[in-house]
Amino acid sequence: MGFIKYIKEEMKIIKERDPAIKTPMEIFLYPSFKAIIRYRIAHYFFVRKHYFLARWYSQRTARKTGIEIHPGATIGKGLFIDHGIGVVIGETAIVGDNVTLYQGVTLGGTGKEHGKRHPTVGNNVMISAGAKVLGSFTIGENSKIGAGSVVLSEVPPNSTVVGVPGRVVKRDNVKIPREDLDQVHLPDPILNELSSLKRENDQLKTELKKLYDKVLQIENKVN
Question: Domain range holding 148?
């Protein structure tokens, strides 16, 4: 009965967070639903040291769904993987409760670490499409990682990170609700920097024109 209850909870999570769902039966077609359920089974084998069986089952799941979750990863309640193709979660990754991952997300290692070598993701975190989180550090709870970002260092709670490498561009004490799955309206530090350079350039042009006009006035007086 416990496993049936868990399946119902997973169905509820997908229905809550994906507006494309029209009927409950559609959930059974979702690769992410299959991947998460199968991960739980593989993880059950893994913690009981049936390593080959766990890896065999998880690899079959990866081939069927396009989502690769190592059976050694630790994943909390309420994980939602939207679309899911290309999602990779490494062996020592720890994922908190109510986390949302979009397609192409990697929770990976740098290849230089031993032991705990994958990220820890706090509760209520959203990681947008194509983002890469690489290394053994923590993404603080209630944070957002922008699409295509490459995060290589610690992220404080309640932060917004964008860019390559990822930079914290917003941080406050207001919790981000887990239903707020907006990948688009995030700050853009590169655009802000370009806008600042444009303003400085325009100001410089104005000052140069003033200086040029003064030089012309002096030349006219001399002549």
Answer: 2-184
